[in-house]
């Protein structure tokens, strides 16, 4: 007794398991987290180092350079980059996927410990941050004081840094909360220069007095026989109200208090950053998910607790300034609609071709069983519902019905032979289940290499391949269990077609019969001109098609219209933050007037340690994220909106550059721009000259927009040239002089005023603003010496110099990047123009140009895909060999694969899509799909030959009988992919080339298979005869 017969006689166990799988699958579908795309960024560790008072040049030379050199020695490092500005160095090291973040963090920490003693004194402890997809915030909140509330943004910032942040961190689904906005409250002591001189004091004395008066000092341990107790001298006792009573110095005339020489103010520190929410000054709060967490899970936790948090802070107003939630939920909803459409269309096409409502109903019933079992498998594997996984589910529609129909048709055939429903189900399933399994395995075989391909390709496509494999295996299980069971009920009764079905059958036959006659006649003619059809026509058409690939163009991933725009900009060097904010206000006004505007978040500058808001921007640099209504509800494309905004922004005076680009303009966050020409070499002045020349040439590239450099030599600085002889004469060290200048003009943090339950206030000492505005104020600054105060211009001369706006390094060398963006032009089309324009650029010795944009990653990814395709073909071949017990028949079957490439290339060219990673995946998938039609033909021919029919008669019979199932299979698969090709969901532009390739390839391969597979069969048959004849003659 066969498995099928045993199961159908006692179906309870397996049926229960299947129903359980369906129920669990339904629950899994309801509970599965949502995302737009799978996490794919390389693991990265960022190190932020702060050296108070140091210039950008010193930070780059004495900190960033040394840290880079050490981090570059770590295992599995892809690249090390650094960005240095005044006082701050940000060094990032990117690792291969094989390096986990935990291991990477430990290695980076150990590397810093090894070199810490060699780094400058005064460097604050390094802050190490893990950077991954989870670093991108799931939501950005803008927090303002409500109208009439007795709060300013400094107080809001204080609340956000303390009580509000703690309340948000108590949400279990939230991993981290980062606050941004530049309003740091501080206690400022503004020292009067004249009074200071009158009392014969200097700023260093004032700072030292405050520091000494407000200090906790450990006093060691009191060790006893049974315990030990820490001894602490509690010196942190300053209070704001009594601060001015502090004694600075004692003279013969009495004590000098702070009130005698300074005024006390509670302000906020000089801002290096600002945040606007929806066009209003605010404090920004980023909500981050756990590294293994999910976007929608964290958002659900935030939505659950935020109303309670709002009640805790009634004086604050909360707005969402940036979130991907609407995009994700709309996109997934669109994908579910596309899946519904694919199922309806495919079932409709199958019904038209089969012209049997009972068989179509049975096939349709198999779909939910298969899908819910697939969803259960996805849940077990920890997958999300995203565009990639749901595309696989939609692609599977036609393939699932193919499995079901093969079994249904065979059961129906046995039913037509007069067998009872039970016996027809047993015999029909038993006869086909091994062949059906072989067909499933051929498709699975071509997908397996994607699971182990490595790199970015695997990160994106692994889930696609896995879900498709799950769906195919689930479909096979359903086709040999559920369908035979249900067929006994659905297919019983009169097997003849009703009137409507007969009408449909006549219509479909009216189309298919001329097609059969055409291909039979064409084969009869072609077999007499076999070499002509195989050589000049077949191979020639394939070569001609592949020659069109340069016209098609290549991308790593296609651009997409999600309704989200990023605007990166920089004002002129030395622009104050206040002036930059005025320019930002103009930009925001333009954005608000743009039709379809929803919300925006604006960030200018950066704050050390606040990674999710950006760690490397200067006060002249900013980023605006803008949300518009989705593309289904507006007339203009996102690229048209970008062009309009760019033109308006460029009219604003004071902007050095502005980039306006779509969300996802680069598939990886580590790719700075689609086109990134990086110039490396030792001398910044030479790099500046070369970058300007490269920038000028890139303006000639058609399709390239927003061309800029990531630094210039435009920053103005006043450089003090010290007179070392006078310094020696007055017994003043360069360090003492520099400390005095810095304290007077930038201020010096003397101590921290502790406040219970808060982070405390920095006590900053400096001159009032009116006494530190001009060059004259600098020159007349009194420098304390043992012989009395001396004006600074007695000890140094002054000159204005131009220096770098920011110092950039990569690969242990100074670099400058020239960046360019695009709308929808293929990367290869842009890169080809770039290469031609830069080919004759003369480079001095020691300087080199490299392409760091999308093209660099594209080469690596396509190399991996090429290997995957080769391995897929090898696996496919050897999966066919045991099925046909031949080494030549699989080659005949695989003839369909190059035929499909013809349709794939022309499909991309006609529709206007570029060849990209999803398109390559479509070609690999095609290899597994199109061979199934060849298998149907070759299997029939071999069976007919075994029954004693002649070769031509067997081939003509195969063409006539197999045309309907071949057309039906192809049309079902094509119809199922139409919603993907039509980009029926937000973000689906990324994967639509996969469907375009599959549809074009299937259309052409299906038709040409009916001619070329029989032709190659005759060719290999004749070849075998010749070989036997030669061996016989020997």
Automatic annotation (TrEMBL):
Record Pfam families: ACR_tran (PF00873)
Domain of life: Bacteria
Gene3D superfamilies with a match to the protein in the record: Multidrug efflux transporter AcrB pore domain, Multidrug efflux transporter AcrB pore domain like, Multidrug efflux transporter AcrB TolC docking domain, DN and DC subdomains, Multidrug efflux transporter AcrB transmembrane domain
Gene Ontology terms: cellular component: plasma membrane
MF annotations from Gene Ontology: xenobiotic transmembrane transporter activity
Entry-linked PANTHER family: PTHR32063, SWARMING MOTILITY PROTEIN SWRC (PTHR32063:SF0)
Name of the protein in its database record: Efflux RND transporter permease subunit
Species of the source: Thermosulfuriphilus ammonigenes
């Amino acid at each position: 007794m066969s498995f099928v017969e045993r199961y159908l006689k006692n179906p309870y166990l397996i049926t229960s398991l299947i129903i359980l799988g369906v129920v669990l699958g339904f629950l899994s579908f309801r509970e599965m987290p949502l995302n737009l795309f799978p996490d794919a960024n390389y693991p990265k560790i960022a190190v932020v180092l702060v050296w108070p008072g140091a210039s950008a040049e010193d930070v780059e030379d004495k900190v960033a350079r040394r840290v880079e050199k050490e981090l570059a020695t770590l295992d599995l490092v892809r690249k090390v980059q650094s960005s240095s500005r005044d006082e701050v160095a940000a060094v990032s090291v990117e690792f291969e996927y094989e390096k986990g973040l935990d291991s990477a963090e430990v290695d980076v920490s150990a590397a810093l410990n090894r070199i810490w003693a060699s780094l400058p004194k005064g460097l604050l402890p390094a802050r190490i941050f893990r950077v991954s997809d989870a670093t991108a915030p799931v939501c950005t909140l803008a927090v303002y004081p409500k109208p009439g509330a007795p709060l300013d943004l400094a107080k809001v910032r204080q609340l956000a840094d303390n009580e509000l942040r703690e309340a948000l961190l108590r949400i279990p689904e939230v991993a981290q909360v980062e606050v941004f906005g530049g309003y740091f409250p501080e206690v400022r002591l503004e020292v009067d220069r004249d009074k200071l001189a009158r009392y014969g004091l200097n700023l260093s004395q004032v700072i030292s007095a405050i520091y000494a008066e407000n200090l906790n000092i450990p006093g060691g341990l009191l060790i006893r026989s049974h315990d030990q107790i820490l001894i602490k001298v509690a010196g942190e006792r300053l209070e704001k109200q009594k601060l001015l009573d502090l004694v600075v110095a004692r003279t013969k005339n009495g004590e000098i208090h702070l009130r005698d020489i300074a005024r006390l103010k509670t302000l906020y520190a000089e801002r290096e950053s600002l945040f606007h929410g929806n066009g209003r000054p605010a404090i920004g709060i980023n909500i981050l998910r756990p590294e293994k967490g999910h976007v929608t899970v964290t958002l659900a936790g935030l939505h659950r607790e935020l109303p309670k948090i709002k009640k805790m802070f009634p004086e604050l107003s909360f707005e969402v300034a940036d979130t991907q939630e609407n995009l994700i939920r709309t996109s997934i909803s669109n994908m579910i609609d596309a899946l519904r459409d694919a199922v309806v269309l495919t079932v409709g096409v199958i019904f038209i071709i089969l012209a049997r409502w009972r068989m179509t109903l049975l096939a349709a019933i198999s779909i939910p069983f298969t899908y819910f079992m697939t969803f259960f498998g996805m849940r077990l594997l920890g997958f999300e519902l995203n565009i990639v996984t749901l595309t696989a589910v939609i692609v599977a529609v036609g393939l699932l019905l193919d499995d079901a129909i093969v079994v249904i048709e065979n059961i129906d055939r046995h039913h037509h032979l007069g067998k009872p429903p039970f016996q027809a189900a047993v015999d029909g399933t038993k006869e086909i289940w091994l062949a059906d399994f072989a067909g499933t395995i051929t498709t699975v075989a071509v997908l397996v290499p994607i699971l182990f391909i490595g790199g970015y390709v695997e990160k994106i496509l692994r889930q696609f391949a896995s879900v498709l494999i799950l769906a195919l295996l689930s479909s096979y299980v359903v086709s040999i269990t559920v369908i035979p069971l249900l067929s006994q009920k659905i297919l019983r009764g009169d097997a003849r077609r009703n009137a409507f079905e007969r009408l449909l059958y006549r219509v479909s036959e009216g189309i298919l019969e001329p097609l059969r006659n055409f291909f039979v006649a064409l084969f009869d003619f072609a077999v007499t001109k076999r070499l002509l059809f195989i050589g000049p026509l077949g191979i020639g058409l394939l070569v001609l098609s592949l020659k069109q690939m340069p016209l098609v163009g290549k991308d790593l991933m296609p651009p997409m219209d999600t309704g989200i725009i990023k605007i990166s900009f920089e004002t002129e060097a030395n622009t104050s933050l206040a002036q930059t904010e005025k320019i930002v206000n103009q930009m925001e006004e333009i954005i608000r007037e743009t039709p379809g505007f929803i919300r925006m978040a604006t960030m200018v500058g950066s704050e050390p340690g606040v990674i999710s808001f950006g760690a490397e921007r200067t006060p002249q640099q900013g980023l605006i994220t803008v949300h518009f209504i989705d593309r289904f509800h507006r007339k203009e494309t996102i690229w048209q909106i970008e062009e309009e905004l760019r033109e308006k922004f460029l009219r604003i005076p004071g902007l050095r550059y502005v980039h306006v680009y779509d969300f996802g303009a680069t598939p990886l966050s580590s790719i700075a721009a689609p086109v990134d020409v990086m110039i490396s070499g030792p001398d910044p002045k030479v790099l500046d000259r070369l970058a300007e020349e490269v920038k000028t040439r890139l303006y000639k590239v058609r399709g390239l927009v927003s061309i800029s450099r990531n630094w210039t030599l435009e920053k103005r600085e006043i450089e003090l040239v010290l007179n070392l002889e006078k310094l020696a004469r007055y017994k003043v060290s360069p360090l003492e002089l520099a400390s005095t200048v810095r304290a007077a003009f930038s201020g010096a943090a003397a101590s921290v005023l502790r406040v219970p339950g808060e982070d405390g206030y920095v006590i900053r000492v400096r001159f009032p603003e009116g006494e530190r505005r001009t060059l004259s104020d600098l020159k007349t600054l009194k420098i304390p010496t043992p012989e009395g105060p001396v004006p600074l211009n007695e000890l140094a001369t002054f000159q204005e110099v131009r220096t770098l706006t920011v110092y950039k390094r990569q690969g242990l060398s100074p670099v400058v990047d020239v960046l360019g963006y695009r709308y929808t032009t293929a990367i290869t089309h842009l890169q080809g123009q770039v290469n031609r324009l830069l080919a004759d650029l003369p480079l001095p010795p020691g300087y080199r140009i490299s392409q760091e944009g999308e093209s660099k990653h594209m080469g690596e990814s396509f190399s991996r895909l090429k290997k995957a395709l080769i391995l897929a073909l090898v696996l496919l071949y050897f999966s066919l060999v045991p099925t046909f017990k031949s080494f030549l028949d699989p080659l005949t079957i695989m003839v369909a694969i190059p035929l499909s490439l013809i349709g794939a290339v022309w499909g991309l060219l006609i529709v206007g899509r570029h060849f990209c990673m999803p398109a390559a995946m479509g070609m690999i998938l095609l290899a597994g799909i199109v061979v199934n039609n060849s298998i149907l033909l070759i299997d029939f021919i071999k069976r007919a030959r075994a029954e004693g029919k002649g070769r031509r008669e067997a081939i003509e019979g195969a063409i006539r009988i197999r045309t309907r199932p071949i057309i039906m299979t192809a049309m079902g698969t094509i119809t199922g992919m139409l919603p993907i090709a039509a980009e029926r969901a937000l973000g689906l532009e990324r994967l639509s080339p996969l469907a375009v390739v599959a549809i074009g390839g299937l259309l052409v391969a299906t038709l040409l298979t009916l001619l070329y597979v029989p032709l190659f069969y005759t060719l290999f048959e004749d070849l075998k005869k010749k070989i036997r004849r030669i061996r016989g003659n020997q």
